[in-house]
Amino acid sequence: MKKIMRKSICVFICSLFCVTGVFSATRGKQELIQAGHWIYDAFTAISLESKVRNFADSAPLSIQELESYFHDIDYEKLSPAGKEQWRRINAYFEETNWSRDSDLFSIGVEPSINPEGYYKTNDDTDWVYDRYDREPLISVPVTFTAENWLTMSMDLHLDVNDGQTLHDDTYCNAPIKPSSFDVNFPDYGYISTGYQFTDTCGVIFQLGILEQSIGRTSTGSIIVSDYMTHTTMGKIALYSKDLKYSFITTQLNATRYMYMHEFDLRFSKRLTVSVMEATLTNAAWEMRYLNPFTIYHGMAPWREYGSSDANNCEYLGVKFDWAIFQYTRLYGLFAMNQYQVPYETASFEDDRTPNSLGGQLGIESYIPAGEGYVHFNLEGYYAIFPIVVWVI
Predict the structure, then answer these.
(1) What separation in angstroms does the CA of 64 have from each of 189, 203, 230, 315, 338?
(2) What pTM, to 2 d.p., does this model score?
(3) Which of 133, 221, 265, 357 has its CA at a distance of 20 to 30 angstroms from the CA of residue 3?
């Protein structure tokens, strides 16, 4: 029944465009740029060339917010590679899709076909190009837009399911047999709205199934990583060039919620610092955590969910991003949800709760070379065992 319903939805949408006629519409300003999108790489490159840091190191962001950060970048001073990336980003923002329009509203699709093949010589080796990187065979994102005020979007696709991608005999992204079809789409779906007070200041609201990332890293953010998929989040944020406030609620399953507030500060064009606090509870949705301007740790909520500490934990995250010189940035992230100070270990000897913290430190460069860039990234990650990743 579920398969029939999903097929019917796809057929209905395709029929709608065939019967009513196809037009074109540009992207709405509230459309979200998903975590891992190439735009974040391109924007980082031209920002570093301009010796500028901003709040575009987290995702997803709306086109409206991303465009507000362009005001710090002087197109005329960019290298040929930088100008090409600048034009490429703006061309994406101005792209049109197949759509059906009615007054302020439009519904559009962006169909694409992405055939892929994979092979490995040793079945004992896991796939490196795994489900996080593979594209669906056929992708048909559907977007409903109310000009620049509101965007709703979801992805329809024909793809191999996540379990099948782990098999050694999966050599392509075409579902060859019935058991390999992915019938659990969409992987993302959201509503995004907002208002821009000035060219560099606005408010946004987002709700949907979205991958989140806080901080731009090579090994996945230690604070919140886009490797955490298929979770529902709600976010409201106030942003400007030098100050941003975000409140985020993430539902992990039926009874687990993470409530987070985050302050991002830009002390100069070259340096940003962010501080965030969260509480993770194994309980029903609670209004007291929706207070956007409070300190969760001061509530001592871990005392209210029974004898098990597993029902609640507090979470602290800190990050900085510094353009130490042109083309290069130094960045660091720190996350912690438990640390026993000497007083606690001496006074509560029966408490064997282990410390839980970690951090990342890295350096990244985008150096123009002809029409492209040489990309260098060196990153250290510490949680239990230190790991260093070197990427060029």
Answers:
(1) 19, 10, 25, 30, 37
(2) 0.86
(3) 133
- Residues in CB range of 148: below 8 A, 6 or more apart: 28, 29, 30, 64
Cα 26 from Cα 95, distance rounded (Å):
5
- The C-alpha atoms of residue 120 and residue 140 are separated, in whole angstroms, by 29
Question: What residues have CB less than 8 Å from 211, skipping those under 6 apart?
Answer: 34, 35, 36, 59, 60, 188, 226, 228, 229, 231
> Which residue reads 């992805």 in tokens?
155
Of 371 and 232, more confident: 232
Instruction: Name the residue type at position 32.
Output: L
Taking the C-alpha atoms of residue 131 and residue 42, their distance in angstroms, rounded to an integer, is: 23
Among 133, 309, 4, CA closest to 300: 309
Residue 85 tokens, joined: 């990336």
> What confidence tens digit (pLDDT) does each residue in 45-69 have?
999 999 999 999 999 999 999 999 9
> What counts of helices (H) and strands (E) characterise the chain?
6, 21
Q: How far apart are the first and last CA of the chain?
A: 48
- State pLDDT tens for residues 327-369: 999 999 999 987 777 777 677 767 666 678 889 999 999 999 9
C-alpha distance from residue 218 to each of 148, 215, 223 (Å): 33, 10, 13
Between helices 80-93 and 38-49, what is the axis angle to 10°?
A: 140
Name the H helices within 232-387.
Answer: 342-347
* DSSP 8-state symbol, 103: T
Among residues 121, 152, 116, which one has the least CA distance to residue 131? 116
Give the integer Cα–Cα distance in Å for 282 and 252. Answer: 10
**Range list of H helices, the chain:** 2-20, 38-49, 63-68, 80-93, 162-165, 342-347
